[in-house]
Write a structure and sequence with these properties.
With about 120 residues, the chain is an all-alpha fold. It has a domain at about 5-65. The protein is about 70% helix and about 0% strand. It has six helices and no strands. The chain has helices spanning about 5-15, 15-25, 25-50, 55-65, 75-90, 95-100. Helix 2 crosses helix 3 (about 25-50) and helix 3 (about 25-50) packs antiparallel against helix 4 (about 55-65). The longest helix has 23 residues, at about 25-50.
Length: about 120
Amino acid sequence: MSEHADATLREYVNRQPELRVALLHDPLRKAQIETLRQTLATVEQALADEGLPDETQRRVINRIVWGNPEGLADVHAQMMSVRKQMLLTDLPPDIARTWWEYPSTSPARPDEEPT
């Protein structure tokens, strides 16, 4: 197995503390991880035999393990990045005015009468 596939599988196990414990005591979980390891090794060998570039092989392994070709994504960091970008960009005048004049914490929308 390549270093990337090995590191990906290790990260997969490390992200799940209960799985690490189960690998010591549960033969079924150990067999499942071994099957995943063998699958990754087989896929990696097949991709190498077909002459695909290393980057493509990395993306395929990531998709198998994480469901995403970019690998494990830090969603919180991505959302913070999007939020920062939104705050840095200029809002259109009507949205900016509405944003500042009517904060989301108000009990009623500005165009509605309170009930």
